[in-house]
Design goal:
Distance between the termini of chain A: 37 Å
Radius of gyration of chain A: 20 Å
Number of helices of chain A: 8
Oligomer: homotetramer
Helix content of chain A: 25-40%
Number of strands of chain A: 15
Shape of chain A: globular
Largest sheet of chain A: 6 strands, mixed
């Protein structure tokens, strides 16, 4: 089990890109929403020909904890939007019905949803017993995309222990991106992709709220970076090492967090705006691309968890004041997707199949000719 | 592993009840829809005090196979309706998006969804390899209700082998009801319940179509039998052995099958009508009752599977001709629920907790005073 | 224009029926929810052969005002559930998106939706100008069922003035039922029906909340009264004057009000439970029956309207405490439907077509043999 | 009543832009889908101060006829997607339930939905009588956006005669764009906008299918043209006459037509992809922007209408073959929006308020510096 990968590749903002006008928060990550923790278990083992059950293994698990405490006691207000249901995410009907998420959110590969669901079930039962009580029923949220292009997916290498590790290793602060966790074996628009994250600060009525996005990107299309059709332009350059392989299908899991005290209905509105970020990176919205957006609010919970009457934010009196949050979601998702690709290194997996990293030198050169890099007016983080 | 239970208790129709005016088909079971197979794995082990991981065990798995062949190659048109999303059923977004089910449908207990999802994943991967090809991605449909009142639910006793057994033992013809499979440890309206099934024949335009329902009943409320408030009347009799324990919450999984060539949109309309049957048995529609209705058509698939252009039924030209199918669904669900309770025997589970069977003698006496049993005009099966 | 009809026929509770165990409030009407006002405009003119544009006219408008003040300034939290979308109700997408209703709710006949929408638009524009300001945009909620069996529906007899009258005549207290307002020309299960209402009191955590239902009933099926299949039994009696004409299709509009401080998500859950009441009255859920359930909370608004931070009810911390409200909805809808039929008198309309009233003497006789009338333990109103 | 406006302004493709890689069809309009007819009624009257009921009038009606025959007899398969329900479109529940549209689709301004609903009701009743039969019930599809920024919206200037005119004047071939019909008084991203249209040809399995889009654009955001942030760059130029006024809110109605034989479920998938086109033009997805996407198939109907068994397209056997249609939708919507702005001339309305046209010279200059105009490889129409 390899828990860390180090990528020396830049994030989108490090080459001067800025998506939208709102500033990112401290880590430009979903962990900028106070309390949110991210943990990865990354499995990279073996090389060469695929031998089912033996490898090569290129997969993992990513855990998103809305806060560090017991989620069954303190569920977070939540919602989801399914742009394309060509995949599976367990727990969505509970989110619809109760407007809450009551477990950690887990991401993994398609065939390991059962193992991860079982793993998080075991983790929560164990946690309950450790706290000296019987567990009540719960319904975990487990999402996936398919990494069988590089990974021995049918080998079912994810075990309960990997789920425990991802949850227990979850941390605030900087988030590992690219070929880590559930993104270890994924790709997007023909380039190696994986996990990416970003955040935005929004001021409403004198208060500052944070929106964070984390993606497991694995979708098809032709990559667009800040409006520039990089996928098409790289193909025009016709250099073999630069061009992406054809990628028609795929999927994306998008997790959105905010400390703004929003109801599930309002979070559903936020989740929908995530599709704008996806559209702007060039997704083709393909038939087989399961595109799921899950949003939760950390702040709203605190009112409920504290045994007090729940308070909804003052700004719901004029819900048009949500507009900056809507823009923040679209922009953070767009940048999180870019980061998931920027940070991912070339990977060779099963049967020697290689998915190339985005060729940064060529990309920067193209972006410069479009006036895109190194804006002088980059907003500092809020 | 105990795969069979024999119940000597009567089905609803055997004491003269008839729900609605439409006749049942040969077995009065979901298997009357040609091709549909049902398999149960029933786990009943141990007695006495709950010892997590050791038992007592009162649980199981039920497999519904829409047809005997490979479902990934020949998916069936399908739809669902969630009356109350307070539970989990995996695979619903795929049903929405593709209008299809492409795997066996599995039912189990709440905490074993992960194990059963993993089990069916393993089964389908194995099947693919047995057929000499790599599996493509798929998204199983796994539903649940909570049986922790009798079962060592947190002991996680369901394993992949139990899923394999339920699928491999699936049969046409008579269906075991009551304390079997996923219904082994469930109860409804304070009485022991479990698996129940029923069917109806419908004639539209000179052709006969069959509708079948199978339920895993576990919901709260006061039992109503064919309009008679049995739950309330038994309580009024105040005899301890007759009265049900309080049951506020619970859940129900309802699977509907038909050979009528319906589109997913039309099947969604059918699924919704299932709630009428649930309402008429006295469900209180409680907060925590995850009530899921899944409907599929076996006939529609055949057109697609055969590589031909899909044909939709002629009667879609006047969709009001679906009305008899709507009634058939409501009636079959109502009777399937009654059968799930009628056929279930008293069970004692963890910590000596006992859920009584419906007291048939008292029930028959009450029904007779309401003129309900032994109608002279029972329709013979079609 | 005839604004009042007087019916001497009894309400369901006046012959001793009681639906469920919860007590009704003072008027056993939707107006028991404080602030709710109901107004009817009833158009009954002409006899004999249908002459399009001249009559006979048997139609009307019913206005439901969630509270007496300006709804655009003080919208009420709201939700809806469409059991069968075979009809039209304008404004549903706004209810979904904002979780609010911001106008009076109007009911009418199918072909007059445009006229009523235009009428309420004119009313709200006029109201704004009367208050000395420009109107901002709004989206009225207008529902319908089809009354063309008795009414010169294609004659389009509803005008803006009838909408104004219904809104301006809206009152609290007793609600006219049967052949009034939007129910003037409707029928259900083959009997004359129309407007009906009922209410329930629920105690949660030491506080009493009220739930009210108002229906415009026009649906097909075989009438069931408190579990007794009256429709079928009357047919068996084979007396011409008692038996209902065949009614396969139709529709129902159900409006639910409560003073419980519920969010739109919770109100959606309430709205769904209304279908249980519909099922229990014998609806066949027919293809062409547009069955719409709209729920609003009067209490929740007050927090928003007062410029304060909105407060959600304490009981959302344990949403299972909503259960009594769920039962209240199912029961109030069932009783409101019965009242809509009980109170409606035989009506002869276009081309001399007659829809018979429910034959009360025969019904009471049948109910007595089932032990249904004059319970000794009727709950007094709360 | 002014029925025609002539705009000398170029369409997007006439300055060399090409959105995506698929070619447009003959007219690059929704009318390229055989049978589709578009009719506008444009009302432009008066100048100066707003006098409610007198003007100035800047509004209209646009009619989309899926085919020239009676739609009640030959409804078209249809679906919708609501990205943001902050508006009203009547008839959506029927589209969901029956998967069909059975009337012309009408677009107008927010306050005139009632008048237009009434107008189309009158039109369809008249049509039925003209054909010598009684009308059965129907539910029209009427959408809207708010044009009160320029128009005397509260003056309610749209009458039934304007609806009749739009329907009766509906034509195939070239479609008037910009300040016509329902787009007469609308604006987008701070520039004058209105009606726009575009089409794409797609080859699947040796057959060519057409997708057409028509928009009534009225949304907020910062305009993006083919990836270039024109709104932001024009603002940077700081020339008063170029810069758009602030536009935060608004709405958009998008109508999609295709001759591909798709089911309502598949059309729903198409409709969702329309949001990608909206995202790429810079919409901010604002709180008050009612964004509705309605899609219909002309081909599917023909099977039903002819009294034959309906045939679904062969390519549903492998629904991934829909991918080119998904791209076609996103691209056609994006280009239709651009055309709605490109073709709209500066308009001065109520109280002398002026919304500027997009400054084409400045835009072309900016686009050229981004290498966007006059591609040499423009696809000819298919």
């Amino acid at each position: 089990m390899i828990n860390k990968t180090v990528s020396n590749r830049p994030r989108a903002r490090e080459i001067g890109l800025q998506i939208g006008k709102l500033p990112p928060a401290e880590f430009n990550a979903i962990t900028d929403v106070e309390g949110v923790l991210i943990g990865h278990t990354t499995l990279i083992e073996g090389h060469g020909a695929l031998e089912i059950g033996k490898g090569p293994i290129r997969t993992g698990v990513t855990a998103i904890l809305p806060h560090p405490r017991n989620l069954i006691d303190e569920p977070v207000e939540a919602a989801h939007f399914v742009f394309n249901g060509a995949g599976t995410t367990s727990g969505l009907s509970l989110i619809d019905e109760f407007g809450q998420i009551e477990t950690p959110i887990l991401l993994t590969n398609t065939f390991s949803v059962g193992a991860v669901y079982d793993g998080v079930t075991r983790y929560l039962i164990k946690t309950a017993f450790d706290e000296g009580r019987n567990p009540r029923w719960f319904n975990p949220t487990v999402g996936e995309t398919y990494d069988g292009g590089l990974n021995d997916a049918a080998g079912l290498h994810i075990k309960a222990e990997h789920v425990f590790a991802a949850i227990e290793n979850a941390r605030s602060g900087n988030v590992a991106e690219g070929n880590v966790g559930a993104g270890t074996g994924t790709s997007a628009c023909g380039f190696k992709a994986g996990i990416g994250t970003s955040s935005r600060c929004v001021e409403i009525g004198g208060k500052t709220w944070t929106v964070g996005a984390l993606v497991q990107s694995n979708f098809g299309g032709e990559l667009i970076i800040d409006g520039v059709p990089i996928g098409e332009l790289l193909t025009d350059r016709a250099s073999a090492e630069d061009s992406a392989s054809d990628q028609i299908d795929g999927s994306i899991m998008v997790i959105l967090a905010t400390d703004a005290p929003l109801s599930s209905r309002q979070l559903h509105r936020l989740a929908k705006r995530g599709t704008f970020g996806l559209a702007r990176t060039g997704s083709n919205g393909g038939h087989g691309s399961g595109d799921y957006f899950i949003a939760f609010s950390t702040s709203y919970r605190q009112c409920i968890g504290a045994g007090k009457t729940a308070e909804m934010a003052t700004f719901v009196q004029n819900e048009s004041r949500l507009n900056p949050l809507f823009c923040a979601v679209a922009d953070a998702v767009e940048e999180a997707i870019l980061n998931s690709i920027f940070r991912a290194e070339t990977m060779t997996g099963r049967d020697g199949r290689t998915v190339p990293a985005l060729p940064m030198d060529a990309v920067i050169e193209i972006l410069r000719t479009h006036g895109k890099c190194w804006h002088e007016t980059q907003p500092v983080s809020c």
